[in-house]
Amino acid sequence: EQGSIIVFDAAYAPFIRSDDVPKSIFEIPGAETCSIEVNSFSKYAGFTGVRLGWTIVPSGLKFSDGSLVRDDYNRVMTTCFNGASNVVQGGGMACLDDAGLTEINTLIDYYLENAKILKKGAEEMGFQVHGGDDAPYVFIDLEGKSSWDMFSKILTEADVVTIPGAGFGPGGEGFLRLSAFAPRDSCIEAIARLKKLNFD
What we know:
Blueprint: E1 6-9, E2 35-40, E3 53-56, H1 69-80, H2 86-96, H3 98-124, E4 128-131, E5 137-141, H4 147-158, E6 163-164, E7 175-179, H5 184-195
Helix pairs in contact: 3-5
Cofactor: pyridoxal 5'-phosphate
Domain Aminotransferase class I/classII large: 2-182
Protein name: Aminotransferase class I/classII large domain-containing protein
């Protein structure tokens, strides 16, 4: 209706375990006429530096003149990109066999448990928390405090690295992100150190 195309990043879809949360934008009726979905092995298989992914451009997505967006997308990709190397493609295929999927799901479960630990710890400190369910990140509401100031305080006083919400744009200011992508002991230790700080 608005002449826009939604580009939906589904890289964290495998972390979604709730039945009532869509894993793909194409679970939403009508999305095939206004959306492109991108995904990769980066988040759930640890391929961040390897760069292997895929894009879904449905045939129902058309320009105002009726031509397929998919055709233009294909032209751009085949002109500008030669594809992933055989080694990288082999790694991707290994991720998709039974053993690979079992390992990936075990790793995702591990990170989701870390997220629960981080979320519970932040809540015990009295913070309002977002995320930590169906996602490997926990966002702490700083109640108007500067995310960069809080990042600096935590880094210098507790030797814990967090991510200031301002790094995600103006809407992220006032929040701090904790990542569950770490060994379990590190998550437990980080919460223990944070509990010793004075946040007033």
